Amino acid sequence: MTVAVTVLCALSAVSPAMAADPAQSDLAAWQRNGKPDRLIVIRPGVVDLVHHGVIEARRSPGTADVRMSWLAANAGPGWITQDGDDPSTVRVGAAVLLTPGTTLRIGRVTRKVLFSAGGSAASGTWIRGSRATLDIRDTTLAAAGPRGGSLADGAPVRPYIYMGAGGRLDISDSTVSGFGLSGRAASRFSGVTWGKGSTGSAVRSTFQGNRTGLRLAGSVEVLLNGVTAKDSVEDGFVLNRDTGTSVTGLTARGNGRNGVTVGGTDGRTLSRVTTRDNEGVGIRATPQHGLSLVRADSGSDRGGGIRMLSCVTCTVSDATVRHTKTAVSITGPGSRVTVDRPRLGGGRTGISLGKDISSATVTGGTVGDFARGVSVSGPRVTVSGIRIDGSRTGISVDGKAHDVALREVTITGGRTGVTAAATTTGVSLTSVQVRNASGKGLTSASTGLRIKGGSVSGASTAVDLGAPARLDGLTITGAQRGIHLTRTVRATGTDLDVLAERKGIEADRGSVIDITDSRVRAPLAMAGDGEIVRHGRTEVTLPPFPWLGFAAIVALLSAIGLQTVHQVRHRRTPRPKVARHVRNTA
Predict the structure, then answer these.
(1) Residue 468 in 3-state DSSP?
(2) N or C terminus: which one in the chain shows less Cβ crowding within 10 Å?
(3) pLDDT tens per residue, range 252-309
(4) Comparison of pLDDT for 564 and 355, the residue scoring more
(5) CA–CA separation, 464 vs 420, rounded Å?
(6) How far is Cα 230 from Cα 175, in angstroms, rounded to an integer?
(7) Tens of pLDDT along 546-559?
(8) What are the distances in angstroms from CA 541 to CA 484, 498, 528?
(9) Are strands 38-43 and 46-51 parallel, antiparallel or unpaired?
(10) pTM for the model
């Protein structure tokens, strides 16, 4: 115990000297940063070249603001050098550490900077700093093979850029390609990273072929504007635990996983995010509160367009999603999401509302050419003012969905307009219009279904009921069969107007429907072995005779007859002859 105390006192006694000794500080920095083979330590007014933990040389730029061109001219071979054939190209063969109060500027003179990818972690190249500034403008940063050649996928240790607490990293009008470690270090050094407590910006720049294109990990007030991440091994953009980030105009294209992954921060707004051809989801939101996603545009992302997991009080506004299996997916416990004015087309499901959500609202917009336009499996869902075209099933309500309200929805084409499964309850339709469904307009096995207003036109069966329901003010036209009740089903109808081409209402054995103040017109208005009870001013008649069509047919037949009579009467009349001196020039 005495020995330990003595050693601690001795270390405490020499620590001020060690802090004042640059060699000791460089050694400590070298050890903290993975003991790289070559480390350039930039301090205010001094640049140390540390080789295997020992200062090999010292340079004096005379200022804390250092340019990459100055390093290339003064560091020496093996460290940072200019390309002999192209002075604007610089080759970096060492790791670079920015200490507090220093600035490194890259660009203008150095239009291209090649970072050597090492064969091991110690021989890798990178730029790191904290409470320092890294400014990159008008240049290209790229990873190169150990001998300056092309970079083989997965073979060498790739370079990376990381800015830590209190630091500032700005990248503008530049390209960064081939960066990012793999393995356990990938989550921190996966390409270009703004770490915890750092700030800065990326503007009009491209991140191509990195492990992760660009990562914000606890950063503060970073500006992202007009940035593209493409061909990443993993995600294009990762925004996690960052605060005050301003995002406008991100593009994620052809990345190996998700285009954009966002989470860990509440009250965030993402505007004008475009994703294309990513292997995963275009935009993936992990658990958070208050996310506002505005004018997102996703196309051909293989894992789906927009996926929101346990997103509470979140909004998706004016999103456009095309050609993916699920355009918008809302899932996860506690999810409360509003989808406003979407434009969705082509795929398996337009909007999927999962069984474990808390609630969801869909308002306005268009959905077209899906197997299912809107799939509702969760509770407390409202879908209003949306138009669904050409989807095999317009709206599907299944799972344990309850308290589902469909209001002023228009569904055109497809096979089935609306389906409600037997496991659902509290489903209501208000002013829903189903047009030209090739199969059934509405089919329900949901107990207590309520329909108020709306219409079904042009279906084989307009309404097919497999459970008790109440129908008020529904209009049916152009259907082969108006309303069908399966065995033992009881239903009521008020102010119905049914015009069917074959059967008006068909009730199977044991079923009962009470209709009040309604009108049923069909060649067979009442059919089946069930009971159809009429109340009030209910009318049951044949469909109206098509007088206009009949008149047209009569007129056509009359014209044909008159023409025939004319030809018969004049069949022996000789053709008129023209005098020989008359010449027909018509």
Answers:
(1) coil
(2) C
(3) 999 999 999 999 999 999 999 999 999 999 999 999 999 999 999 999 999 999 999 9
(4) 355
(5) 11
(6) 11
(7) 544 555 666 677 77
(8) 18, 10, 17
(9) antiparallel
(10) 0.86
- Tokens standing for residue 429: 């339709």
Q: Are 476 and 451 in contact (CB under 8 A)?
A: no
| Of 322, 327, 399, residue with least CA distance to 362 | 327
Nearest to 453 by CA among 416, 491, 495, 484: 495
Q: For 348-369, what is the HEC assignment?
A: EEEEEECCCCCEEEEECCEEEE
Pair of tokens at residue 59: 């340079």
Contact 399, 423 (CB under 8 A): yes
CA distance 275 to 280: 11
Distance CA 332, CA 316 (A): 16
Identify the H or E element spanning 126: strand 126-129
Burial class (CB in 10 A: 0-12, 13-18, 19+), 429: buried
Cβ proximity of 369 and 349 under 8 Å: no
Please report the beta strands in 295-354, taking only residues with DSSP state E, as ranges in sequence order: 297-299, 304-309, 311-317, 320-322, 326-331, 336-340, 343-353
Strand partners, 473: none
- Direct distance between the N- and C-terminal alpha carbons of the chain, in angstroms, rounded to an integer: 128
Neighbours of 539 (CB within 10 A): 12
CA–CA gap between residue 370 and residue 393 (Å, rounded): 8
